[in-house]
Every structure is written in structure tokens, then in C-alpha cells.
Amino acid sequence: MDIVTAQEMYERDRVAMEAAGLDGKMLMENAGRAVAYDFLRHIQKEHKIVVLIGAGNNGGDGFVIARTLLNLGYDVEAWQVVPDAKTTGDAEAHKRIFQASGHPYRLLKSSEDLNTSLCRADVCIDAMLGIGVKGRLREPYADIVRLCNERSIVRLAVDLPSGVPADEGEEDFEAFQAHYTSIIEAPKQSAFLQHTQPYYGEWSVVEIGLPPKQLPDHRRRLWGRADVERTLPGREAHSHKGSHGKGLVIGGSRLMPGSVAMTARAALRSGAGLIAVSTDSEAIPAISPYVQEATFVEGENGGRVPDLGGYDGIAVGMGLGRNSMQETVVERLVREKETPLLVDADGLYLLKGFLGELKNREVPTVLTPHPGEFAHLTGLSIQEILRAPFSYSKEFAEKHGVYLVLKGPSTIITGPDGEQRVDVSGNAGLAKGGSGDVLSGILLSMMMQTEHVMDALSNGCFLHGSTADLLVQDGHSKVDLLASDVIEGLSRTFRTFSS
């Protein structure tokens, strides 16, 4: 499923109309009816429904939605919140159809009149503003939105809540606080941003008939279960442990043995054939009982970097520490150009001095920062990162020739060629120490089993998050869930996929 900016959505509509000959009024009818039927899950026949109708395409959709619900026998009051002169084009055509169908509408003259209707209503449908909004709302929209947000009613939004910017980068806004949003055709970037996503509430996407083969590819998409089922590697009947990758995990210390232990165990639970661990010798007695299937290696003179020959992937940084000795470890791995490398946690902090050398690596390099670690790498503030994660991720990945996994409730995976994917699996139970270590192990394992790195990383993020979702649905809460629970829960997740 594609993720688009406002401009990209306009382009998709234009292509559909020009290349496929689809009429704008037809698309508006398709959109309104699809949204109306999507909303039926949230409304009941005894509900009193207010539909707020603005100008432009969203307003036209609103007339179609109101007409469809009225035709189905629902109690609907349609409010046009803009003057008649502002309803033009396809929206005006659907307004005429609405009237010709015998349905009256009310024209907003004062917010007091609307407030009286809202006080009687059970459901409010927001079809006021669309994807072109930027900045703070003007009147009468600002007043209407405040009235709606104050009411204890079910708030449903069409495409995106009025006032929410479609694109990243906007911070100063006020918006309709939806309980549920029916997104038309493709989710917009703001559905995945920390400061805008809450306004959507729950959401899903409705299809309106745009021809997929004719639409431009913006190389930014939502990665879901169907994608994982299509790309997740299977197991050949005659495969052996060497067929599924030999990985090296470098990290851990006497005071932090758990991080590297969880990474190694997660990698094995995710299907890696062999995992070796290079860690502080004093940490080995704590690690080995937890992950008995791993072996332990050390470098010359007890160093952390062993002979790197024969490994299919390396993960470094979990519990590594941040002193000058560990910085030498990261530097050597960056300059080793023959083995795919994943850098996480402490490794990301030690990496900053060697960013200029990443472009010289001839094999994939994967960085897995959370927003704070990414802020350290870029020199930006966390707030800047959260405001525009798509742009900053793309810029960084292309500049340094790396794969970037920017972790969060919506994890953005970016390739060195600028391709982006978003994984929204998982829940707040993952907001615990160790979750990132587990993800690194899963990603290392997927990298060694899948030729296409973007597929490996996208699938790894989905497996991690969906395992947490499964565990919270049965047996755990978001409060008690531990990172180690996710490791042991991976077997349940893999059983849900065909082998």
C-alpha cells in the first residue's frame, strides 16, 4: 500500500483521470460511497448523525456520504459549513444530486445553531477540509472543530481529520480529533507521525477505483502481512545449518550481558543457522546458560574483533560500551568491506566519527537508531527528527549509502536508493529495555536468509512487532511484556505463516 504526500495524491488523481479516462465526479461518487459503507461499522440505525460539509473534494465526498446514509435509512443532518459560492466543480454537481434526491441540507449561519445539532447528535462526520490544509485553521473551521472535540460523540473523519496536514514538517496546527478515519485510496505521511497520528484515531483505507498500473510509483509504502507472506523465506527440505547464515554478534560487557544475549537468542529463534558471540570474557558465564546454542569467539590478545572470515552477517553495539577501545571495534568493522554489518545501540554513538567511510563499504550496512540515536548521528534535535522523519531518513540513507531503520510506533525503513517502507506493527509493550536488542537479532537473521535487504529488514520489523501484538492479545499485557517474552513468542508468529 502506497504512502503519499498531498502533491503525490493530486498527481494520482490527475493520472487516473487523464490516462484511464476516469471522470472526477465518478471518483467522487466512488470515494463517498466507499467511505459511507466503511463508516457503517461505527454507527447504528438509532444514531443521530451530523455530516459537516466543506468546499472542494472533501465537501463533495460529504454530500455523497450524507446521501448514501440517508438512502440506507439513517437519521442524517447535512450541514454545509461554507457559503454556496464556494461549492463548485464536482462538489457542486454532487450537491445538486443530493438535492435532486429529495434531501435537504442546512447552511451554516452561526456556530450556535450547529452546536444545538451537535448536542443532539450521536455521531459527527468530518468532511470539511482535505489534504491541502497548512497552518492553523481559519474561521469558521476552527470554531466548528472546537465544538466537535468538546462533544461526547463518535467523531469520524473523511480521508484525514480537518486541520491535520497531509505532509510531514508541519507542527503548528489544531485539528478535528477523530475516533476513526476512513482514508481514501492511500494513507498520507501524517498518518505515521508521532504528533499527527493521534488525530486520526483508528484508520483504514478504502479503494475508489484508481488504476494501479497507471499510477506513479513514489517508492514509499506501508509494509503489511501480505507483503511478509509473499517475501518471507521458506525452508528447503534438505537445507542445513550453513544454509541459513552464520552470524557474529559483538557486544555485551560484565555489567550488561543481557543485551548481547537477547540479540543472539533472537537471531537463533528467527532462523539463523549459527551464531557466534564476541563479548567481555567476564560476561560469558552469564550469557552461555541463556543461549546455549551460541558459540563464543575472541580476537587477538582477548580483543573483541575475531577473524571475520566466513560470517554472513555481523551485528555490533548492544551493551558494547562507549570508550575508546570500543570505538576501535566499530572503526575496524566499518572498514571491513566484505560482510554485511548491522550497527545498533552503543555502536551508533561510536559510529559518528566514521560516517564518511560508510559509503566505501561494498556490502550492506544497516543502522537501527531510535529518534534520540538518529539525532546524535545527524546533529539534529529529536523534535526535528520527529517532525520530518521521512525526509531526514531518506537524506541520510542516500548520503551515506546505508539502510536505515528508524524505530518508533511507525518504523521507517529506508534504503540507500531512497526507497522507504513503514511498519506499524507492535504496541506500547515494546517500550522496554531490550526490545531494540531483540529486533537487532531478528534483523541479522533475516539479512542472512534473504537476498533482498529491504525485504529482510521490513519482514524483521513486522515479525518483531506482530509477535508483541500476539502476546498482548493472549497471555500478556502491555505493562508486563518483556523483550525476552518476544523472543520466546517468535515461534507463535512463525506458525501463523505458511512454511
Question: What does the model show?
Answer:
The chain is an alpha/beta fold and 499 residues long. It has helices at 6-19, 24-39, 56-71, 89-100, 111-120, 141-150, 197-200, 225-231, 257-269, 284-287, 324-335, 346-351, 371-378, 382-387, 389-400, 435-449, 453-473, 483-495; strands at 48-53, 75-80, 106-107, 123-127, 154-158, 180-184, 202-206, 220-222, 246-250, 274-278, 295-296, 313-316, 341-343, 365-367, 403-406, 411-414, 420-423. Strand 12, helix 11 (324-335) and strand 13 form a beta-alpha-beta unit. It starts with 5 loop residues before the first helix and ends with a helix. 51% of the residues are buried.
CATH topology of the largest domain: UDP-N-acetylmuramoyl-L-alanine:D-glutamate ligase
| Total number of beta strands | 17
- The CATH class assignment of the largest domain is Alpha Beta
Indicate the structural class.
alpha/beta
The CATH architecture classification of the largest domain is 3-Layer(aba) Sandwich
Task: Provide the fold topology.
Layout: H1 6-19, H2 24-39, E1 48-53, H3 56-71, E2 75-80, H4 89-100, E3 106-107, H5 111-120, E4 123-127, H6 141-150, E5 154-158, E6 180-184, H7 197-200, E7 202-206, E8 220-222, H8 225-231, E9 246-250, H9 257-269, E10 274-278, H10 284-287, E11 295-296, E12 313-316, H11 324-335, E13 341-343, H12 346-351, E14 365-367, H13 371-378, H14 382-387, H15 389-400, E15 403-406, E16 411-414, E17 420-423, H16 435-449, H17 453-473, H18 483-495
Parallel strand pairs: 1-2, 1-4, 2-3, 4-5, 5-6, 6-7, 8-17, 9-10, 9-12, 10-11, 12-13, 13-14, 14-15
Antiparallel strand pairs: 15-16, 16-17
Helix pairs in contact: 2-3, 2-4, 3-4, 5-6, 8-17, 9-16, 9-18, 16-17, 16-18, 17-18
